[in-house]
Amino acid sequence: MYKNLRFVQGIKLHNFANTHTINMYQERTFLLLSDHNEEENFKKEVLQSPLGLAKNIIDDLFASKFSDLQAKLDTIKDFTAGISSAKKFKEYGLAKHYPHLFAFHQFFHSSIRARQGKVLEKIIGFVLKNYVKCPIVTEGHESLSILQAIIDEKLEKLDIDALAASPDRKKIILIQLRSRDDTGGTTAKGSLVELLRSMLRLNKKPNIKILYLVGIWDERDSNQKNSTITKFCSSLKDFISDETLFKKQIEQIYHFNDTLMLQLAYGTNAISRAIFEWSESQDEAILRGIQNIVGTIENWDDLWIAVSIANLELELQHIQNVSNINILKEKIQKFNFQPNISSYENIYHSATQFTNQILPTWNENSLPFGSIAEKAHYIRDLVFLYTIHQYVNDKLQLIRNF
What we know:
Blueprint: E1 11-13, E2 20-22, H1 38-46, H2 48-62, H3 67-71, H4 76-80, H5 83-87, H6 93-131, E3 136-139, H7 142-151, E4 162-165, E5 171-180, H8 186-191, H9 194-201, E6 209-218, H10 225-235, H11 243-249, E7 254-255, E8 260-266, H12 268-279, H13 285-297, H14 302-320, H15 324-335, H16 344-358, H17 372-391
Parallel strand pairs: 5-6, 6-8
Antiparallel strand pairs: 1-2, 3-4, 4-5, 7-8
Helix pairs in contact: 2-6, 2-14, 2-17, 6-13, 6-14, 12-13, 14-17, 16-17
């Protein structure tokens, strides 16, 4: 999308010793600023959780709140991560920067790890709803209450990543997802079948066929597959009559009884194949559903730009004692910048034109790049983030009437 925005007018800089010209800008896709149409709304729905993280980082960046993260570190990090040692050198910029750098990276990585599962749930939910045409599709906590209603039994409060009923409503699929197989120990692996074990303990055969599908998204050469299967076998040993048969059949389908089955799928192709075979559909588009969705949503720039700029700005603030955020705010006030946010195209051109206007006046030695082109892109990315901070609300909606 927005291919017409790939090439923009050149920038001529007359405040430098030599005249420099930028013939084009790189294309940017900021979903937080995008127009309301079917494709963009779909992307925002699937990526809602990481977009929320991007918005939080941008807001904290412009509100100068990243210093607060360092105060939230637990005392264990003082000695295990060397923070106490760094704090001894208060006058050394590198040491002063380290606690803030560590806190930001810990915050980001823990946040994105928790949020990526939400994206996978959304993708699977979309495949079930729009490719398989399931009449009932739920994700997360809502799934448990529906499952309890279906089997007419109370279960332990355990998460289900996705639940769906077949188009004829004669069977259901329960899906537990993990992003990869080489994280977490045996306890984490065992948790994938906790709900199944709870169902088996009821000692009651469901009156509807249920496939319990465990999907490992990124198989990583299936390094931990045998370990995972062994842990499943251990967790469910009271309900398995033949462990050898269990280990042999689990990747096809293992039957506990006529109506309750378990399947393990490694990688998106295997997950797609399992859903396709469960659906008993002739529509092979189901097999390509996950890849199609990933291809649709993979190009967006909000988060990586927010994280990269936040990382660089933390370094500049603590080592060089300068803030490009504050410099930008001063120039916005000086030039009375008000972006036209009536459409994404207008936002795009507003940011580009304002960058053209202020780049020749940016005399501060604060931009972390040497070339004029990279400086221009950095400033324009800052302007985009400013627009998100000012005009996107907490519900991730662009406020167009202002």
